[in-house]
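Hi R.,

As promised on Friday, here is the backbone we talked about, encoded as structure tokens. Could you run it through your design pipeline when you get a chance and send me back a sequence?
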């Protein structure tokens, strides 16, 4: 059960376009090392003839690896964090285009009193979302099963950072749509035909 889950996580990691090279390398090492330990334990358990040794090896599956409690959640969190940072970069590109559109609209005499102030908190949301997401890999990649054994809440701060990143980037996306819609020329009323 654990080894197939690790293989699936490694495949997901390999197919994700947004994960940085450093994070991919670190996660691949963690997954491979964990799988290697579990394969060694499997062989040791098959060879065990002593009940105490068997008990220790079985306990080690959980306590020394924490596949479902730490390794897999951490992998998903880092992938989500890097994907969020990538999304923030795309929103930055949109910001440049929309700010240029605001400037063009203003130069053409369009009232930009609504979209222009909206662009300021929008940039702040992008920056905040990027900062929250960027903090996650550094917070979780160095964790060990021993850290999780000592504190089952060790991943909670990183989860909260990811949630903040999602909230901020979603708000930034919604503000971008709002600005774009505010810049669209409003349809002019058509004159009524004379009867």
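Update: got your reply. Pasting your designed sequence below so it's all in one thread:
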């Amino acid at each position: 059960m654990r080894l197939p889950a690790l293989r699936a996580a490694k495949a997901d990691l390999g197919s994700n376009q947004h994960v940085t090279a450093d994070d991919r390398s670190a996660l691949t090492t963690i997954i491979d090392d964990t799988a290697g330990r579990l394969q060694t334990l499997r062989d040791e358990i098959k060879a065990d003839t002593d009940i105490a040794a068997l008990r220790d090896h079985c306990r080690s599956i959980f306590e020394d690896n924490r596949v479902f409690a730490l390794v897999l959640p951490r992998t998903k969190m880092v992938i989500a964090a890097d994907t969020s940072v990538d999304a923030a970069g795309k929103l930055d590109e949109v910001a440049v285009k929309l700010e240029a559109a605001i400037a063009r609209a203003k130069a053409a005499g369009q009232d930009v009193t609504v979209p222009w102030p909206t662009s300021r908190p929008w940039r702040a949301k992008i920056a905040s979302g990027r900062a929250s997401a960027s903090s996650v890999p550094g917070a979780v990649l160095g964790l060990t099963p021993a850290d999780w054994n000592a504190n089952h809440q060790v991943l909670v701060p990183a989860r909260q950072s990811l949630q903040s990143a999602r909230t901020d980037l979603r708000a930034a996306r919604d503000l971008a749509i709002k600005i774009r819609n505010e810049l669209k020329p409003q349809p002019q009323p058509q004159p009524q035909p004379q009867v």
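One thing I noticed while checking it: The chain has seven helices and no strands.

Thanks again,
M.
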